[in-house]
Design brief:
By secondary structure, the chain is of the alpha/beta class. The protein folds into 2 domains: 2-290, 7-stranded beta/alpha barrel (Alpha-Beta Barrel); 306-405, no CATH class. The protein is built from 17 helices and 10 strands. Strands 1, 2, 3, 8 and 9 form a 5-stranded parallel beta sheet that branches. The chain has a 5-stranded mixed beta sheet with strand order 4-5-7-6-10. The longest helix has 34 residues, at 396-429. 43% of the residues are buried.
């Protein structure tokens, strides 16, 4: 039996407004609310609502159908603010029992590459949020942009996750196939599901390419490709952005019809079924180790992290985040911590990418240098706010001691106030 594991990524960052040098120290609100709302509402109408309706109809007709989602925390917040009706449809899908929701970093950040504590915190925050919204604690992690390395795998296993998704990068697996369950070389207890680049890209990148030699892609062609693989290859991981449904590929392209037909044709074949990541991990045993010293991702020909950290602009911005992370986390200021989260979204670094610049898709900036300048102005203001509450002249250990003392005093004050209220109540009754 062959199994299709269908996974969709959903992420929207909090895009920054035009923030100039003279705004530093004077304006502490950083976001382009108009653009964020407009984009979320537009994608909701083109993708989330019609695609969720499609999946609900498929599940009603084919209860054996399975699909998995990873929804970033920043996307969830914008869904709650701008498109609550779409969030309700995701809850409806969760109630079917046919959908698995995966964990990831809350802000869709690169923290796994520069700050293990931040990576842990964001992942735990996101897991709790997914459990609150959809009623199930995630057992499988999908790191930002499928980023994976041996060090990251060790951290993920220590967090208690059973499995992780990553890219079936050719320079890592070599002659081997991504169509098996693997285990992390640095953490054998962690199962790995590898994205099948050929089949996934056929849908996400090539579906509307008229110059593609396999155009048009049909559901029966996809099922046939899977059936024609060697019998021992039984796991086919189709990982892609959810926006392929209606946004990246419009409905008129036939993309909705493709996914509608896929479960029917799989059932007819009698040799192809759908499964969630957790179901595959429970059903199969890993066939070999998968190991990568250097981080890999699902982006570009190189399948590395150069898209976000490949030039001095990106590296300089990331270094600032790494340097100030510990100090920021010591501050008990929810607004500041929220800003800190939002500024870590990988999108901000993607906008600074200088490779083949011709206007990056989805970038609100005129150039990567414009993106860098705007981001660093915002980050500079945030760090000024951090400096006010946690001066860099004070060592972090000393600052931590101060914060603990203050916290203890606050707790003591709250306890005394509660005692006073209790005594007053008793006096009034007497």
């Amino acid at each position: 039996m062959k199994h299709i594991c269908l996974y969709f990524q959903i992420h929207q960052p909090f895009r920054l407004k035009r923030y100039r040098f003279f705004d530093i120290g004077n304006d502490h609100y950083y976001y382009d609310d108009f653009r964020n709302e407009e984009i979320m509402r537009r994608i909701t109408q083109k993708c989330y609502l019609p695609a969720n309706l499609l999946l609900k109809e498929i599940i009603a007709e084919h209860p054996e159908f399975r699909v998995a989602f990873s929804i970033s925390g920043t996307a969830l917040e914008q869904l709650e603010s701008y498109s609550p009706e779409a969030l309700d449809t995701f809850r409806d899908l969760a109630e079917t029992g046919c959908v698995e929701f995966l964990a990831e970093t809350y802000a869709h950040s690169l923290s796994s590459l520069y700050d293990p504590e931040e990576f842990y915190n964001q992942t735990m925050i996101h897991s709790r949020r997914m459990e609150e919204l959809f009623g199930v604690k995630p057992r499988v992690l999908r790191n930002t942009e499928l980023i994976f390395s041996d060090n990251i795998a060790t951290q993920v296993a220590e967090m208690g996750f059973q499995g992780m998704l990553t890219e079936g990068a050719k320079h890592i697996i070599g002659w081997k196939s991504p169509n098996y369950l693997y285990k992390a070389g640095s953490a054998p207890e962690l199962s790995l599901l590898l994205r099948n680049p050929r089949l996934s890209d056929a849908i996400s990148a090539m579906f509307t390419r008229y110059d593609w030699n396999e155009y048009p892609l049909t559901a029966d062609k996809m099922i046939r490709w899977i059936e024609e693989t060697p019998e021992e290859e039984q796991i086919f991981n189709l990982f892609m952005n959810y926006e392929v449904l209606g946004s990246l590929h419009p409905q008129e392209s036939g993309i909705f019809d493709f996914f509608r037909a896929l479960p029917s044709l799989a059932k007819k074949s009698e040799g192809v079924k759908f499964a969630t990541p957790s179901e595959l991990i429970e059903s199969y045993s890993p066939v070999a180790k998968f190991s990568s010293i250097y981080p890999i991702s699902w982006v570009g020909e190189e399948k590395d992290t150069g898209t976000w950290l490949g030039n001095v602009l990106q590296q300089g911005a990331c270094d600032k985040l790494e340097q100030w992370g510990e100090r920021v986390r010591m501050i008990d200021d929810q607004r500041m911590l929220q800003d800190w989260l939002y500024l870590q979204s990988a999108d901000h670094f993607y906008y600074m990418n200088t490779i083949n610049w011709g206007g990056h898709p989805f970038s609100p900036y005129s150039s990567p240098y414009d993106a860098f300048s705007n981001y660093m102005n915002v980050l500079s203001d945030l760090l000024l706010r951090v400096e006010e509450q946690a001066p860099s002249s004070i060592e972090t250990e000393e600052l931590n001691s101060y914060q603990q003392t203050i916290h203890a005093q606050d707790e003591r004050i709250a306890a005394l106030e509660a005692e006073i209220r209790q005594l007053k109540g008793a006096k009034d009754k007497a």
